Amino acid sequence: MDTKKEGVSLNINNIIEQKSVKLVFQPVVSVIKKSVIGLEALFTGSLDDNGKFINKDYLLTYASKEGEAIELDRLYREKALGSFVNVYKDNKEALLFIDINISIIDKYIGSKILLNVVNEYKIEPKNIVLEIVAEKIDDIEAMQKFINFYRSRGFLIALKDLGAGFANLDMISYVEPDIIKINSVITKEISYNYYKQEIFKSLINLSKKVGALVVTEEIETEAEAMVVMELGADMIQGSVFREAINIENVNLSEITEKTKQLSIGYKDYMIEEINAKEKAHEDYDNIINNIIDKLVKENKKNYDNTIDKIVEDYSILECVYILDNDGYQVTDTATRCKNMLSQKALIFQPAKKGTNHALKKYYYFPKSMHLNKYVTEPYVSLATGNLCITISAYFKNTSGEDYILCVDFNPDYINI
Question: Domain EAL spans what residues (predicted)?
Answer without folding.
Answer: 5-258
